[in-house]
Write a structure and sequence with these properties.
The structure holds 2 protein chains of 2 kinds. Chain A is of the alpha+beta class. In chain A, 27% of the residues lie in helices and 21% in strands. Chain B has 10 helices and no strands. The interface between A and B is large, with 121 and 107 residues.
Chain lengths: 507, 219
Amino acid sequence: MILRHDDYGKSARYDADVVVVGTGAGGAAAGATLAKAGLDVIFVEEGSYHPTSSFNPYATETVPRIYRDASSTVIFGSPDIPYLEGRCVGGSTVLNGGMAYRAPEAVLDTWAKRTGLEELGPKGMDSYFSDVEERVHVGHQLEASVGGDSRIMEAGARKLGWKYEVNRRNQEACVGANNCVFGCPTGAKQSALVTYVPDALAAGARCLTEIRVEEILVERGRAVGVRGRAVNPRTRRPGPRVVVRARAVVVAGGAVQTPYLLLRHRLGRPSGRLGKNLLCHPNVKVLAVYPFDVQAWKGVNQYGQIREFDDDGILFAENMVPPGAMAALIPCVGRGAWDLMRRYDQIVATGVLVEDSTTGTVSRGPFGLAMPKYFITARDHERFVRGAKLLAELHFAMGAEYVVMPFSEYPFVRSPDELRKLSVASVPAKSLELLTVHLMGTAAMGGRPEDSVVDPSGELWDLPGCHVADASLFPTAIGRNPQITILALALRVGERLAERLLSRKVA
Amino acid sequence: MTLHLQMVRERSDPAGGAGRSAARVAGETEARRSAAGPGRLVERHPADGWVLADPRPMSGPTRRAFRGLIRVLCPPPPGPTLPDLEDRIELHVRRMLSYMVPVVALGFVVAVHVVDFAPMWRFRAWSRLQRVDRDDAERLLTEMGRSRSPFVRMLILAVRGLVLSTFYDQEETHAAMGWKPLPFLTERIRLRERLLAGEPISPADHVLPISPVARETVA
């Protein structure tokens, strides 16, 4: 059962075994595990429910429907980094590119050593990864779904002798509609919307949508539920109060909203790490304009990644988006914008992703504003400039007419010679046009209360009954698309909690 | 990793049968749209029971400044012309502001005014942007978008992103660009249905670079 704003009357109260805040990768997977174990689960989701049949390629309708704050969210820093995340049933899995990578073994080894938890190592996590991969159909794309932009990237990598890896994606018979960022209209992308959320509902879970959770109910030092306000869809103002009481609370609002909610209660003691350790895997866009039609909007969103520079934490990938989304990113206006956009069929949109070399913070700002802050390092600056130049080099090698760079002062490069003139010295860090969609790490899991926020089962050290099950749990950066790792950790949290609650029930 | 722990559960319908659940609305919508055929699936205005928010109120001076900005940010002919360009973009942007944290929406309004006064504080003209010659105004905004100052760039990014995203999402603009996504998406939806029904893929089902030059480039 999925309820929405007009179902709550003047106020509403529900009871359950577990209340799960958020229905993205973490919330959905944890909730489905708990519901399938026989527990009464209620999801509380801030966004609305949009079925597969409602997805289309139009930015004006899609952005307010499924993106948080109509994609006006920013990480403050130098430069500022706009970030995107989902606000709908299924969360960011509805609008991501569908990449399905496990955290690398070296990263999991680091997690195990750093936290003292063997179970976070490659062996301990293996069965969770396998379960997730089976449920969300992780595999390679059908050849029939591969479009021109992917072929150009693959051929470019081959020409330059770079390592190219075909992506593993969570998809079932994906035919390359390339509407991933606005919701998959074919249902092929195995987002939480079409996997874990239906699993949970089939097992009896309920989903209360259009409610923003404002606080956790705490009684006798224990989390016993949540209180929130339903959001009026027309006025966007807070409406009826909704209370959900439960034996346990799972917070899965993502790496910004989870600490934002928990910090209200001054949690995160004794380490003081709640809201710290923000990781964001920032990226820059490089658009190439070719002298022929590529029609990159046809074909799978991201067929592969160039992994030649893995050792430096640099990845390249294609990522074409509909015109309404692309227009928000281009560095020109008026005639200049039209000169670029009228050649939409000839544009290949690509990106450089750089693994975090630093961490940021999330705090509660004034006027209800979550305040993420993140300052890139000199090393990041160098890698972004180098990465964007290398990617532009690939495009020129493949015959691009000109390239739109992510450097505000030098947005257009028309030849390899011009490209060579760009350097770290000539492109200041603050002129980088960064963006991110991978936020992680603000409520890190660990084995010791003095250096982590939650214990090995995902429960807050300083608030029994309150668990975290989302990307906030990551102790360190993973340098990969985080979806599968979030799902695996959330399954683990859900399983531990189910065992605990059911053993208490039996007792 | 199956949990072999089953408990008898007691559960009742908390809504007590009252209200109109999202799932029910969506279910009805799915049925209606399925009956209409896959061609209707990816069109505008999906009927999943969801409504766009009311536009956020905007004062007269802000509207005038914002409309001046719209005229500069959107291309003049021979770019696509929309008969009610300013109305359409203003209405949609005001709706988008309703989804933002109020202080961010307020920041947008402030940005509109600061940019409107940019010809003065950038020492270009003693008048507001809304009264400056269009070409001069476009040059100024382009230059501001490439400024060394992150603050100045953020001002432009905010207004440019919202206005251009709306402009390049209009039917007339798509027609002028030659972008027709619906036949392709519909064909892909049908193809996936065929694959799930067990039909094999034929060569005609492949997405390939369309232009022969592109095909030659990647060969």
